[in-house]
């Protein structure tokens, strides 16, 4: 038996969008179940996201701390952002986010992992990249606003982040998945065996 996610689409009898927001919306589908019954399923429609585990030469990960209103906390996170343009190359989006949120560029990019953040209630897909060979970006810093205007920055050793994740002190899903995937990749075939930065992504197809 191969343990691998597989595409499948159950019949939808009707659909509506009762809420449309600035970046996301809520959709209600009437879905036919295996026994023939029809049930309603509500979920958030999301454009997708990218996130970056930016690893420096001292084995530290670049973090930002940002207020997240739904959970009423300031969370330590890795740089991340929405795929604002349909079909946008996720590598380009990740490079943009690293520049805008940290004013950093990287020479070596790999795909660390792809995840659905909350598949039971949202179709958000996130591609998490590993970025290495970091340096300060050229030009002026990106002008931030709203929650981003209050961001803090830090570079934290990988071992300290693993401890914080397992101790329940760090909760951002991309940070948790990204850091633990980094450690697992090192323990396996190594970071150079990771997928290339423009590997196919069926959840959010793009053009190179």
What do these coordinates show?
The structure is a single chain. The protein is an alpha+beta fold. 18% of the residues lie in helices and 39% in strands. The chain is built from 3 helices and 11 strands. It has helices at 90-102, 158-166, 173-187; strands spanning 12-20, 25-32, 38-45, 49-54, 60-68, 73-77, 80-82, 104-116, 125-136, 152-157, 195-196. Strands 7-4-9-8-11 form a 5-stranded mixed sheet. The protein has a 3-stranded antiparallel sheet with strand order 1-2-3, with no helix packed on it. β1 (12-20) and β2 form a beta hairpin. It is globular.
Question: Which descriptors would you attach to this protein?
Answer:
three-stranded antiparallel sheet; 208 residues; hydrolase; 3 helices; 39% strand; NUDIX hydrolase; globular; five-stranded mixed sheet; alpha+beta; NUDIX_hydrolase-like_dom_sf
